[in-house]
Amino acid sequence: MNGETTGSQPRVLIVDDEPSMCEMIQTDLRLRGVKSEWCSSAADAISAIHASDFDVVLTDVRMPGTSGLQLCQQVSAVRPDLPIIVMTAFGTLETAIAAMRSGAYDFITKPLEMDLLSLTLKRAIERRQLTEQVRLLESTRDTSNAFGDLLGQSPVMKRLNEQLHQIAQSDATVLITGESGTGKELTARAIHGQSRRAEHSFVAVNCGAISETLLESELFGHVKGAFTDAREPRRGLFLEAQGGTLLLDEIGEMPLTMQIKLLRALEERKVRPVGSDKEQSFDVRVIAATNRDLDAAVAEGRFREDLFYRINVIALELPPLRSRGADILRLAEHFLRKFSQQEHKPVTGLAEGVGEKLLAYSWPGNVRELRNVMERAVALTRYDRVTVEDLPDKVRDFEGGMLFIGGLDPAELLPLEEIERRYIAHVVDACGGNQTQAARILGLDRKTIYRKLKSD
Q1: Is the pLDDT of residue 213 over 70?
Q2: Domain-terminating residue out of 114, 139, 164
Q3: Could you tell me how far CA 114 lies from the centroid of its own chain?
Q4: Would you say residue 149 has pLDDT above 60?
Q5: Are residues 205 and 77 located together in one domain of the fold?
Q6: Among 76, 60, 69, which residue's Cα sits nearest to residue 117?
Q7: Tens digits of per-residue pLDDT, 345-390?
């Protein structure tokens, strides 16, 4: 075996029975700033992999004794995270397919084009580093990160986790806002799980999915005979969650008359079951969640201002997925592993080009939409990696919107007022219609935004 001094740089293991080929590749990689070692047999390669850590293996196919394809199988069995690139002078489709089936990450033919080899190695190294990041994130979930289910290392997610640690220690009412699919219930569960109430019940109710009459009974309970179908008494969710946490999801959909009753219950810490003349005390932490702009709802008279202030003691805004950068890929890898295990399919990662498509898409459905996309991709793929063709058309063919303000022809140029109106509309759309969030970005109040958008 021949090696170079290694540091923190990525490391490549070259395997070829021709030492001159190994030395030629090693010299070229050194000039490109890549560390490498080489050996001339598959047996030596296995020993090297057990003795040291590499980011990628580059192996010839035809070697005496154990072939490159057999080496792929052996490495994949013990180090499935380690990408292998196969090189051969016999660049047939059959050889490529055999290499992929043996666990190879990619396939390159001899004579080598060093620029192409360098690019292929770079992609494999990036792939391995990303996989390692996700693995480390998963392995520390139960120790260093109490909110590990909220995967992410982007700045916005780090700030969110810091906030959650503080919020969990309090008993104050929390209002969680964010677009649909950002993980509001997951966040509420995380807060409950790290609070002093964790040993008691976490109860969730969707306030927009139940009629007003039934919602009152659902929350406060009822006595026997209170209405036609009330054959037995019911405690209600406030009492079911006694000592624990109650999540009022989609609170922005709650009817106004029910809002009055909820406000009274929250202020007095008591509920009166439907049909009863007696009140019952409760000890529950309330978390409310909505994807609505409650500031706007209050201004328009659709949500009571006094209830808004009562539930908005601690405000927590969840970031949309499109603002989380590389977290998109971390989550994609997380869901890929989950669904490949669930489907009993050996899908090990993302093929070339998939990451770029995932990062370019706007994700209006946020994490929930990404989860569905990866579940679909794992179910449909015919390969050991998810390919671009496995993605839905809307993700595969997505092109980011552009804010067109006119060309070079004076006849095409737009008035400043129209450019302003278009940009405001663009920001509001990017914020999922949340005019309060858009107002913060634009430095305007909501009434000004409304007036400028209506001026066309």
Answers
A1: yes
A2: 139
A3: 36
A4: no
A5: no
A6: 60
A7: 999 899 988 988 898 888 989 999 999 999 999 999 999 999 999 9
Angle at which helices 327-343 and 114-139 pack, to 10 degrees? Answer: 80
Residues 388 and 310 in one domain: no
Name which of 319, 345, 184 is nearest 250 in CA terms.
184
What does the block give as tokens for 353?
């080009």
Straight-line distance from the first to the last Cα atom of the chain, in angstroms, rounded to the nearest whole number: 73
CA 145 – CA 137 distance, rounded (Å): 9
pLDDT more than 90, % of the chain: 45
Task: For residue 54, give both structure tokens.
Answer: 């590499």
Strands (E), 256-382: 270-271, 280-281, 285-290, 314-317, 349-350
- pLDDT category at 182 given cuts 50, 70, 90 is very high
Do residues 128 and 211 share a domain?
no
In a domain, 110, yes or no: yes
Helix, strand, coil % in the chain, rounded to nearest 5? 50, 15, 40
Same domain, yes or no: 312 and 335: no
Q: Which helix (H) or strand (E) segment is 80 a member of?
A: none
Strands 11-15 and 202-206, bridge-based pairing:
unpaired
pLDDT at 20 over 50: yes
Residue 48 pLDDT greater than 50, yes or no: yes
**297 and 243 belong to one structural domain:** yes
Domain end, chosen from 85, 110, 139, is at 139
Token couple for 431? 């914020």
* 3-class secondary structure, 352: coil
How far, CA to CA in Å, does 183 sit from each of 47, 117, 189, 418, 430? 45, 41, 10, 36, 18
How many H-runs (helices) and E-runs (strands) does the chain carry?
19, 15
Please give the full DSSP string across 172-228, using - where no structure is assigned: S-EEEE--TTS-HHHHHHHHHHTSTTTTS-EEEEETTSS-HHHHHHHHH-B-TTSST
Mean pLDDT in residue range 100-119: 85
Instruction: Please say whether the dihedral angle defined by the alpha carbons of residues 392, 394, 398 and 400, taken in this order, is positive or negative.
Output: negative
Long-range contacts for 130-134 (Cβ within 8 Å, ≥24 apart)? Answer: 130/326, 130/329, 130/330, 130/333, 131/81, 131/333, 131/349, 132/81, 133/330, 134/330, 134/333, 134/334
d(CA 26, CA 417): 61
CATH of the domain at 207: 3.40.50.300
- Residues 427 and 366 occupy one common structural domain: no
Total domains, the chain: 4
Residues facing residue 206 across a β-bridge: 249
Contacts of residue 418, defined as CB under 8 A and 6 or more positions apart, other chains included, come to none
